[in-house]
Amino acid sequence: MKKLCLVFILIFSNCKGIMFEKPYEKPNILLLYVDDLRPELASYGATHIQSPNIDALAEKGVKFTNAYCNVPVCGASRASMLTGMLPTKNRFLDYKTFVERETPEAITLPQLFKSNGYTTISNGKIYHHLDDRESDWDEVWRPYAFDENTKGMAPTDYWQSLWKDYQNPDNRAYYEATDRGPAYESAAVSDSTYIDGLLTQKVIQDLIQLKKNQKPFFLTAGFINPHLPFNAPKKYWDLYDRKTIKQPENYNYTPKDAPEISISNWAEMRSYSNIPKQGQVSDSLAIDLIHGYYATVSYTDALIGKILKELEAQKLTENTLVILVSDHGYNLQEHTQWTKFTNYNTATQVPLIIYDPLSKSSGTTNALTSLIDIYPTLVELCGLKAPKEQLDGTSLVPILKNPELEGRKHVFIKRTNGFTLKTKGFSYTEFIKAADNSILDKMLYDHRKNKVENTNVAYKKEFESIAAEMSQTLHSAYQKNIEGERSKNNAYK
């Protein structure tokens, strides 16, 4: 059914934190959250991608090149980021995650800002589920979510059907009849026709009204694209010459010596009408899918540009902090994989850009960063009191002041029974049996020589000591997350 999984976080703000020379009492926050966006952008070195608006933001702000999600699936990743809490064996598992069910006593990021006098507005997909933690917001909005519904908030099964937003009449008719549309389309329509275009119009109107209100705001824009289906106006498809689009070099093989359990069957993509139920897609279809992904990235970039232009027109840029982020990465046929749902680097690495017009901080940082770090960063920048016992992340303010800092020593990532520890040099994963916490298999990738992860070296003699050390760190630092544990404040810690 319909799933709005785009994810950009853009945050502009005149915050009262220690990084500012002036004590700004009530900075604004604009959160642009993009679904399924991997760091394949021109500003990240992918010059074949047309993303001028994101690139301009990266040029003015601090760009994080070593940022990772904590769960490579939409619902769970968003819950983790917005609570500042890591996943565990029995918390934040998949797209079905509800914050109010799994961590009912957690103080979420929007809840914290609302309690501190901010107008909080959820536009598009922020929490995965529209009806999750409604009280965190002054307003919850998604395109079409209230149509044909007389009882207020649309139920989950209704709004999840909305994101397959086909404009081609044949595609729409087939989807309505079978619940299975194609994985992409390029309709000759305006930017405002698709759902993300409607979202952009809503955010622009919010900026106009919020400027009039003269109150601080926590405003979000949760984009669907570049989530499947890769639907974008034809002009964005036309930005790319199909003849120049290439499959990744490792598209036709899994990593050498990789555990079978590490490979996904990409069931999400197989639910579309033009995708085979088994086996790999044809080379021609693979190019079409990659082409569609690129088109939706450029479409989203154009919409972000419109929002930022309106922010400037309303003269709000001087009191608004901006952050750009995605909920997780994405596989574009690397190691035969599509979509997310794996512990591999392609599914877990995300873009993260923070722009602050007051501090004038800019540059690129290779500091190891996690999405749970966003919560304490905003708290510190805006001078709020943090729920310290709840938060698992670390503020990025020191790195914003000095991009040369090293950042974290490691990042923790979980996907089903795969538990990953990432350092700057290596990615180590253990697949752990839930019943008795025994190790089913493991993998280790040397990012110093091979960040595309073509060879699992976990069982190679020359890497025995590194694998053992990372295993020890994984269990000593994150044993509670691996086993799951009840706590006073949350259903599970």
The number of helical segments is 14
Q: Tell me the CATH architecture.
A: 3-Layer(aba) Sandwich
- Protein structure class: alpha/beta
In percent, how much strand structure appears in the residues?
A: 15-25%
Please tell me what the overall shape is.
globular
The radius of gyration computed from the alpha-carbon positions, rounded to a whole number of angstroms, is: 21 Å
What is the percent of helical residues? 25-40%
* Uncertain regions spanning at least 5 consecutive residues: 1-24, 486-493
Q: Briefly, what CATH class?
A: Alpha Beta
Question: What is the domain total for the residues?
Answer: 1
SSE layout and pairings?
Layout: E1 28-34, H1 52-60, E2 62-68, H2 74-83, H3 99-102, H4 109-115, E3 119-123, E4 139-141, H5 156-159, H6 169-178, E5 184-185, H7 195-213, E6 217-223, E7 230-231, H8 234-237, H9 267-270, H10 283-313, E8 320-326, E9 331-332, E10 338-339, H11 345-348, E11 349-355, E12 363-365, E13 369-370, H12 374-381, H13 397-401, E14 411-415, E15 418-422, E16 426-432, E17 439-446, H14 464-483
Helix pairs in contact: 7-10
